[in-house]
Write a structure and sequence with these properties.
The complex is a heterotrimer of chains A (129), B (301) and C (501).
Chain A lengths: L1 H9 L1 H19 L3 H21 L26 H32 L4 H12 L1
Helix pairs in contact in A: 1-2, 2-3, 3-4
Chain B lengths: L1 H15 L11 H7 L5 H6 L2 H29 L13 H8 L1 H4 L5 H9 L1 H22 L8 H13 L6 H23 L8 H25 L4 H27 L20 H24 L4
Helix pairs in contact in B: 7-8, 8-12, 8-13, 10-11, 11-13, 12-13
Chain C lengths: L7 H16 L5 H29 L3 E4 L10 E4 L1 H20 L1 H7 L5 H20 L3 H20 L4 H32 L4 H14 L3 H18 L9 H7 L2 H26 L2 H6 L2 H21 L4 H21 L3 H30 L13 H4 L1 H15 L5 H15 L4 H27 L19 H19 L2 H13 L1
Antiparallel strand pairs in C: 1-2
Helix pairs in contact in C: 1-2, 1-5, 2-3, 2-5, 3-5, 3-11, 3-15, 3-20, 3-21, 5-6, 5-11, 6-7, 6-11, 7-9, 7-10, 9-11, 10-11, 10-14, 11-14, 11-15, 13-14, 13-19, 14-15, 14-19, 15-17, 15-18, 15-20, 15-21, 17-19, 17-20, 18-19, 18-20
The chains are: A mainly alpha (129), B mainly alpha (301), C mainly alpha (501).
């Protein structure tokens, strides 16, 4: 157990990312309110991005932007640039799906005057019958 | 007094939750009927409250299982920040050490996202394009999604945003606008030399446009950014990006001679296709951000 | 300079994307439709050429996107399996669009019809990319494109039911892609690679060395869970009936026939190229998939049996049919995967045929979708009636139709499996009976004389099949029959393709 705590405190960045994931996940499941659900989804996405970036970090190195290109570049100076690039892609995807889900929410709100997903589903069923 | 505050808090909470009037739209009976059908004996054991509690408990357990599993997994992963982790391999070595020589940008990340792994990033621009299209399908004003009530509400908003009500905002925006645009353009053009690039620069430009619309209204923005112009910029940017990528991929994969060089690293005109692509992506992102805002608030560009 | 046909996958993907971008500025839905059909034809022809080129030489090739090969740059990979599936996807998508054309132009407002076809082109691009990709992160990006486009074609009809269905679909899908991304992050952290060949090598060496066993198990679990949610494996299917049952005809057909399959094909590629099937089996993932697949086959059919709404019934039957695919994968042996891929193709033809036919049948009764009111609909639109009969009988598993061959190969595979034999055979038998219990009454109902839709004030009307509908039903029906009669060449291409993976 003490081993585990030592490892966790070393990997604090990933631990916090995962706790954030839990928070996002539970708000996605428990909240009835659509806006809160979307916020939960966003927290979840962000936590995954944090988790992914953490694998690029290497202690004591700097961001991969070369200040003086005339000197040959040493790999030992910079952190791993690949996860950063992947997260950039992920973030744009996250923005896009958030915009889409918020637009849907706006339409549903205009129709039913409520943001409660359960109520919306019931109202839609009532219309169908 | 306290009752009053309580009442106000209740109203505030209702407003946050998006409930317009107090009457419940759905009766409790309907809610009960809509629950998944549990076997009879479970129903006898569970009251309605317990049923909800069961769902909450189930969700909490699910969440704990996921979080716990992942936390345990972290124990077995390579140490955070350790040198010599599996990720520090020949892939990273080439990106860092050969990036400037092979592609030419001193911002090594832009080498990766626009050239080494350019296909992913083109896909990502398409995601943004698709999201803008979806928002357009949902929210562009038409007879299905706009009622007379909505139009009246929008007219009221326009009244509030009229000239005499936004004097402060207008004068501040007049001062800020050039700075924001300049900064956006700087971030765009220096994407291959410093932190930044198409997506971040475009987001800054888009924010500037949104601020401008807030202060001066839709009509003023329409003088340079109507729906027509929006479509032209978006399609032109994506076409430029797409055809550049086709050229790069085709010549690269077939070992043909490519006219794209690397230039002198560190100069503004260097790194081949990266700066033009950054500009194209930036324009697309700026338009899309503004379009999101305009469709959400006004239903039109 | 490589042979020209090796450029085809890349050119097809970009053609579809650029067509989508162009379509977004058109004003007329008709022209957008023509562009989409043209693109589908061109891509279909290119895939056929590719299939011929790779299958005749029994070879595959990788295509670096740019001058940087793996493990540095993005790559595509194409062999007989990918090319064949691309050809099937193009044919089915074109037929579904043609079959649902009338409904598309009725259901969607004229100003927004072109945007529907934007989604179609992008959906094609993303399906092709998921087929051809050799890079797992590209897979993630195109999963997201696929998700957004699929949600958009559900909501295109823009009534209350479809909006609610889209919301549920979107939330579930995003959960699935979030899980997929986490597993991808874990995979990257223990291997340092994103391209499938290098991933495969390092995972193999990890297995041999017995390193990182726990993260590997977790990441395989998360990856399968994410893709299973997206492909509506039981018990994650709750979004499917609403989404597929309420959208416009062409959307339902494409969602059931193709979109679900895209994720499964990606999963198969990951099973084969990142892991190999024996490593997956040793992680016990196949056992879970087998159990869930078997449950899906039964529960999907039971749910369909209780459903009086024609499109929702067909949608629930999709849940059962997805179960067949996972059952095949869950056998954990080569023969099972061959059966699963065959089921992907067979279902890709059968389900759109059913949806297109149901759409046409219900248009003879004022778009009423309840079976009760569809009495005699087959007599009023004969071609659609025949289409539904052929599709329904194929689902039941009548010999000489595609569904029968799937069951045959699944049963054959099951006899070779380790412990699954008896269960698989029993589930197959029960599922066939259940399928018959809801498809046969439906077929009887549409061919019965008289009509019932007057009871709710709808005048039954005769619909002559227009050319687009006729082409669609004939091609899809011919596909079902051809797959049932001369299935040997198809199976040999599948086996060859899987052997090359």
């Amino acid at each position: 157990m003490s081993n585990a705590i030592a490892t966790w405190s070393g990997d604090y960045y990933q631990v916090f990312a995962i706790i954030l994931f839990g928070i996002g996940f539970i708000s996605l499941l428990l909240h009835k309110n659509l806006i809160k659900k979307i916020i939960g989804l966003n927290i979840m996405d962000s936590s995954v991005y944090l988790f992914l970036t953490s694998f690029g970090f290497i202690d004591g190195r700097v961001a991969p932007i070369v200040a003086d290109p005339s000197v040959p570049v040493q790999m030992e100076t910079y952190i791993n640039p690949l996860p950063t690039g992947l997260v950039l892609t992920g973030i744009v995807v996250g923005v896009s799906v958030t915009a889409f889900s918020l637009a849907l929410t706006q339409r549903l709100y205009k129709k039913y005057h409520t943001l409660n997903l359960d109520e919306i589903i019931i109202l839609a069923k009532r219309e169908e019958v | 007094m306290t009752k009053n505050i309580k009442e106000q808090w209740r109203q505030f909470a209702a407003w946050v939750n998006g409930v317009e009037n107090d009457e419940p739209v759905v009766t409790p009976e309907e809610k009960r009927a809509a629950r998944p059908h549990l076997p009879g004996f479970v129903h006898r054991v569970l009251s309605e409250k317990n049923e909800l509690r069961l769902y909450h408990a189930f969700s909490a357990v699910m969440c704990l299982v996921f979080t716990g599993t992942l936390l345990l997994t972290v124990l077995f992963l390579p140490t955070f920040g350790g040198a010599g982790n599996p990720t520090e391999n020949e892939v990273m070595e080439r990106y860092v050490e050969k990036g400037i020589e092979e592609v030419g940008a001193t911002n090594l990340i832009s080498n990766i996202i626009l050239v080494y792994r350019g296909f992913d990033t083109f896909g990502e621009s398409c995601v943004l394009f698709l999201a803008a299209t979806c928002v357009m399908i949902l929210l562009r004003k038409d007879e299905k999604n706009t009622t007379a009530y909505d139009l009246a509400e929008r007219a009221e908003d326009a009244e509030i945003e009229s000239e005499e009500n936004t004097t402060v905002l207008r004068s501040v925006v007049r001062m800020l606008m050039p700075v924001i645009l300049l900064f956006g353009v700087y971030v765009l053009l220096n994407g291959h030399l410093s932190p930044g690039g198409g997506f971040s620069g475009g987001a800054i430009l888009g924010a500037g446009l949104i601020l401008f619309e807030n202060a001066f209204g839709l009509e003023k923005v329409r003088r340079f950014m109507s729906e027509h112009v929006y479509h032209i910029i978006k399609v032109a940017a994506l076409y430029f990006y797409g055809f550049t990528m086709i050229y790069v991929f085709f010549t690269g994969a077939n070992d043909l001679h490519s006219i794209i060089g690397t230039g002198i690293p560190g100069m503004i005109f260097s790194a081949g296709v990266i700066m033009p692509i950054n500009v194209a992506v930036g324009l697309e992102v700026a338009c899309t951000m503004y379009a999101f805002y305009a469709f959400f608030s006004k239903g039109e560009l | 300079m490589r042979p020209f046909y090796e450029n085809l996958p890349f050119l097809c993907i970009f053609l579809a994307m650029l067509a989508g971008i162009t379509t977004s500025i058109l004003h007329s839905g008709k022209w957008a439709m023509r562009i989409s059909i043209t693109v589908l034809t061109v891509v279909g022809a290119a895939s056929a050429w590719l299939l011929y080129a790779t299958a005749s030489q029994n070879t595959y090739f990788v295509y670096a996107m740019g001058k940087f090969p793996s493990p540095w740059g993005n790559e595509l990979r194409a062999g007989p399996l990918e090319a064949g599936l691309a050809l099937v996807f193009c044919i089915v998508m074109a037929c579904s669009l043609l079959g649902g054309l009338q409904d598309i132009f009725e259901d969607i407002l004229p100003g927004k019809q072109n945007l529907y076809f934007v989604m179609m082109d992008m959906l094609l691009a993303s399906l092709l990319s998921m087929l051809y990709t050799n890079d797992i992160f590209t897979g993630y990006v195109f999963i997201e494109i696929n998700t957004i486009a699929a949600c958009a074609i559900v909501m295109a009809k823009d009534n209350n039911q479809t909006l609610v269905a889209t919301m549920r679909y979107l939330v579930m899908s995003l959960l699935g892609s979030g899980l997929f991304l986490i597993s991808l992050a874990l995979l990257y952290s223990i291997t340092g690679h994103l391209l499938m060949p290098q991933l495969g090598e390092s995972i193999h060496s990890l297995f041999v060395g017995g390193l990182y066993n726990e993260p590997l198990t977790v990441l395989v679990g998360l990856m399968v869970l994410g893709l299973a949610i997206k492909s509506a494996l039981f018990p994650f299917h709750s979004w499917l009936p609403d989404a597929h049952g309420s959208s416009t005809t062409a959307s339902s057909a494409i969602l059931s026939g193709l979109v679900l399959k895209g994720y499964i094909v990606l999963l198969i590629k990951i099973f084969y190229r990142v892991f190999n099937i024996s490593e997956v089996r040793s992680l016990k993932v196949t056992n879970v998939l087998f159990v869930l697949g078997a449950l899906a086959m039964i529960m999907g059919s039971v749910k369909a049996l209780q459903e009086g709404h024609s499109k929702r019934m067909v949608a629930y039957s999709s849940v059962a049919q997805i179960g067949y695919i996972y059952l095949g994968l869950g056998l954990g042996i080569e023969a099972g995967v061959v059966a699963a891929v065959f089921q992907i193709i067979a279902h890709a033809f059968t389900k759109p045929l059913l949806f297109v036919s149901v759409g046409a049948l219900s248009s003879t009764a004022g778009h009423e979708k309840k079976w009760y009111y569809l009495r005699g609909a087959g007599r009023r639109c004969k071609l659609a009636g025949i289409g539904f009969t052929v599709g329904g009988l194929s689902m039941v598993g009548i010999p000489l139709l595609a569904g029968f061959v799937t069951k045959l190969y699944l049963a054959q595979g099951a006899t070779l499996a380790a412990w699954q034999t008896i269960t698989a055979l029993a589930v197959l038998a029960v599922s066939s009976v259940l399928n018959a219990m809801y498809y046969i009454p439906a077929i009887v109902q549409i061919w019965s004389s008289g009509s019932t839709c007057q009871e709710i004030g709808i005048e039954p009307k005769v619909r002559r099949a227009d050319p687009a509908l006729a082409v669609s039903i004939l091609v899809l029906g011919a596909g079902v029959i051809l797959l049932g009669v001369c299935y040997r060449p198809v199976v040999s291409v599948i086996s060859a393709g899987l052997a090359l993976l």
